[in-house]
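Researcher: Let's run the pair from yesterday's discussion. Sequence first, then tokens, for each.
Model: Starting with the first of the pair.
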Amino acid sequence: MKPRISMITLGVRDLAASVRFYEQGLGLPRMDSPPEVAFFTLNGSWLGLYGRESLAEDAGVPADGNGFAGFTIAHNVDSEAAVDELLGQAVSAGARLVKPAQKVFWGGYSGYFADPDGYLWEVAHNPFFWVGPKDERCITRPFN
């Protein structure tokens, strides 16, 4: 298998509200899609939003999961100020601030927000990653 994540699909309770959050609140570019699903381009991969019940049914698992899902989604930016800015943007769009931005044990600066369905997003500045131009995301460089 070639290492790659093609798409992350989130099972959401209110598709319209989640679409507003990601499209209008965070400014993700939405692709044309059928009304029961929404897709956003993420510079080499996609974010999909789909009804929670329908996604669970498709996977053959119960839809009543709760608590910590066991994963987070991370978005790396090029400065500590950009972390603060993006966390503020997310909260203004309806996210819940879970962990305010702060210096962290691994040498970076990060904070967390939860989207309208509680999915955790880490916003981080990692001095060991090169983020590059705004149209590129998190291209790693070797640790020194």
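Model: Moving on to the second of the pair.
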Amino acid sequence: MLNRDLAEHHKPVSDIFSKITGAKDYEPFTLNKEQIEHFHEFGYLTNVKIFEPEQVEVLRKELTEIADPAHPKHDLFYEFHNNQSTDPETVLFHSLGHWRMTQGFHDALWNPAFAKPASQLLGDKAIRFWHDQLFCKPAGHGGVVAWHQDYSYWIRTVPMQHLTCWIGLDDATTENGCLNYIPGSHKWGLLKRLELGGEMEAIFEQLTEPQQAQIKPVPMELKKGHACFHHPLMLHGSFANKSQRSRRALVLNVFADGTTSDTDEVMLRGTDIKVTKGEKMQGKYFPLLYDPSI
């Protein structure tokens, strides 16, 4: 019998994704040398297939259900923002913690099509779950996600050995507000954290003139079920959705096993989860997803 809070389960609880019985089951999802080299040189890797179409449909259905504030597990969200946009004319739905609520979002963490590439991009290390996110931009008036670096929000965990995977639940295009990267910006160092749903170009004030000259956004257009992986210092954001199609995305964030807390404060906003400074990030909320040595 499943617990109400699926964070109690540190393995898949359904048959939505590929069953894993041993190391050989990860082999079909292995990245090649060129893909890994591209990630380290430019700070990202795009067009990696993570979900089959039928898996996307399961997640879309679950998203519709949990987006309702009256959902019976609503208290399990870390954060829930019906609209995080600072522009009253646009909408940016953003939530964290849905892996605790539904079987599809929970089991996506152990999906070998995600876990194997994530481990490779972190140097073939064992990986632990950090947190998940949903970003949804409705058709016609979907808001922006301002340029930012993910690690600027995560400095309470050290060392920096984190990774982000952005997965489309819709086809993502320039017109409906797909993710954009500034290739090579992961080599610029850590910048100051800003409002995620705020002014698109606010971060430019922190950049040097040579850096500003390199701001040439590259759109990550993807078919649904496909993903981009990016470095924790990669400068990225997404423009408004003015198309007639929605743009929904699932984000999975992980770090290498051995990452520790750098604070005695609450670890995840909206919760009472704490990890004493200097202690390893592990336990109920930070499960081990994949260990290549096992």
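Researcher: Give me one sentence on the second I can quote.
Model: Residues 31 and 120 are 7 Å apart (CA to CA).
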